[in-house]
Amino acid sequence: MHTAAHFYATHRGRVAARLLGQRMTAFWPEGTQGRTLGLGYALPFLPLWEREDAPCFSARLDTHVTRAAPPWQGRDCMASGLQLPFDDLKFDRILLIHALEVSEDKNSLLRQVWKILRDDGRLLLVVPNRAGLWAHADNSPFGQGTPFSRRQISRWLADACFRAERHEDALYIPPAGPCPTAPVGMVEWTGRNLFPRLGGVCLIEAVKDIYAGVPSRPAVVVPGGLRLGAARIFSRSLTRRPPPTDAQNT
Q1: What CA–CA distance (Å, rounded) separates 188 from 91?
Q2: DSSP state, residue 155
Q3: Residue 159: what pLDDT?
């Protein structure tokens, strides 16, 4: 089985969760305040930020990879990426993992995330790296769906009015074969320093690009006798551009 729940119940899955959690807390320290949502399949990571006065929430996407899950504190639900069941501007931080790569409509999912994230909120996106080994081994959820390059994911984010601010790679341990017996932290450190672009997954922190749809040129004053066509400069959400394809070169 290649579901996220099954993977994280294995020894390799627990090791991967620990390594990813360490990188995530480098972006968002433990105990960071605010309302946090884990979208896709984030159950192994939400305890990093769980607090009594700021509980975390989980929304698993309705896909074959993320559908199954153990019970989790009554704050977990199943959701469609086309319509998330949350109010606009509800969350301070959103962790998106095991989501974008298995989504059939990636742009709609990112636009839904944009709506429910506060204007000063932050998105942490975790996707399989097409240059790494994990994207090419189908024994984990990172080997399902569409892997990305840094350039591709930045383009997807920009089309959804997000701005990527920080990139890191993680998961340098092998996705198959015997799990390393040496301290895996040393394996990760070596990989980040020697092969910084070849990690199994990419972690990207992004913020809302609120002014993405604002025209940069000043308005032109036109004599009253002239007739102009309707303006089409206001928002990317109103101008449908072809989304980036998975076949684009890095």
Answers
A1: 31
A2: H
A3: 94
Helix (H) or strand (E) holding 55: none
- Rounded CA-CA distance 186/173 in Å is 10
- The CA-based angle 138-150-63, given to 5 degrees, is 40
Q: How many CA atoms lie within 13 A of 3 on its CB side?
A: 15
pLDDT digits over 140-153, tens only? 999 999 999 999 99
Does residue 126 carry a pLDDT above 80?
yes
Read off the pTM.
0.83
Give 204-235 pLDDT, tens digit per residue.
Answer: 999 999 876 554 455 455 555 555 454 443 34
List Cα–Cα distances, 105 to 47, 111, 221, 242, in angstroms.
29, 10, 40, 12
H helices of 128-230, where?
150-159, 184-194
Give the burial class of 4: count Cβ atoms within 10 A of its Cβ; 0-12 exposed, 13-18 middle, 19 or more buried.
buried
> CA–CA separation, 36 vs 148, rounded Å?
25
Starting at the edge strand that comes first in sequence, how are the strands of the sheet with 91-97 ordered? 76-79, 57-61, 36-40, 91-97, 117-128, 201-208, 162-170
Count Cα atoms within 13 angstroms, Cβ side, for 109.
26
